[in-house]
Specification:
Structural class: mainly alpha
Order of helices and strands: HHHHHHH
Largest sheet: none
Number of domains: 2
Radius of gyration: 20 Å
Number of strands: 0
Protein name: Putative methanogenesis marker domain 9
Strand content: under 5%
Number of helices: 7
Helix content: 40-55%
C-alpha cells in the first residue's frame, strides 16, 4: 500500500494530514494552524512523533536535519539527507510513505475530550462540583493533564 493521495507539506498549503511530513514547530509557521485544527499542542505533536520514531524505522536518520526520518519531508521534495538514510537502512519510498501514512493517522486521529466531558470526569474523579471542575479546567487553559495535577495537589493538601 502506498499513500497515493499524500498531501503537500503544511508549509506548501497541504491539509492537516501533511503534519506527518513537518519539522518540529521551532518557529512561527503554518504548522501551528494545522496543530490547532487537530487539537494538538506543539508539545503533544512532538511527543507523538518522537514515540512513533521509537517504535518504527522512522527513528533512523541521525544525519538528517532533525535527527530522524520522522521529521523528514515527502519524497517528492528532493532531499539527499533523507534519501541517503533510506538507502542505508534499505527502506523504499513506498515503505517510507506507508509509515508516514500511519503516523498521519495517529496525528490527525487524536481526539481530545471536549471541556464538557472533561468537567464531568474531573468532578467525578475528585469528588467536586462541576462548577469547581470547570473553574480549574479554565484556569489551566483546558489542559486536562494540568487540571488533574492541580486537583491532585489540592486533594493532598486537604488530606492533612
Amino acid at each position: 500500500m502506498t499513500w497515493e493521495d499524500a498531501p503537500s507539506h503544511i508549509c506548501r498549503g497541504g491539509d492537516k494530514r501533511g503534519l506527518a511530513f513537518c519539522c518540529p514547530p521551532v518557529k512561527p509557521c503554518p504548522i501551528l494552524n494545522a496543530l490547532d485544527e487537530v487539537n494538538l499542542t506543539p508539545q503533544e505533536y512532538i511527543d507523538i512523533k518522537t514515540e512513533f520514531a521509537k517504535e518504527t524505522k522512522l527513528g533512523e536518520g541521525t544525519g538528517t536535519c532533525f535527527g530522524s526520518l520522522v521529521w523528514c519531508c515527502k519524497p517528492s521534495k528532493p532531499c539527499p539527507l533523507r534519501d541517503i538514510t533510506l538507502k542505508n537502512i534499505g527502506m523504499t519510498h513506498d515503505e517510507y510513505l506507508d509509515l508516514k501514512k500511519e503516523l498521519s493517522d495517529k496525528l490527525v486521529g487524536v481526539d481530545k475530550p471536549t471541556p464538557d466531558e472533561s468537567v464531568k470526569v474531573l468532578a467525578e474523579t475528585f469528588n467536586i462540583g462541576e462548577m469547581e471542575a470547570m473553574s480549574v479546567l479554565n484556569d489551566c487553559n483546558n489542559d486536562l493533564r494540568m487540571a488533574v495535577k492541580l486537583l491532585r495537589v489540592k486533594s493532598l493538601g486537604n488530606a492533612d
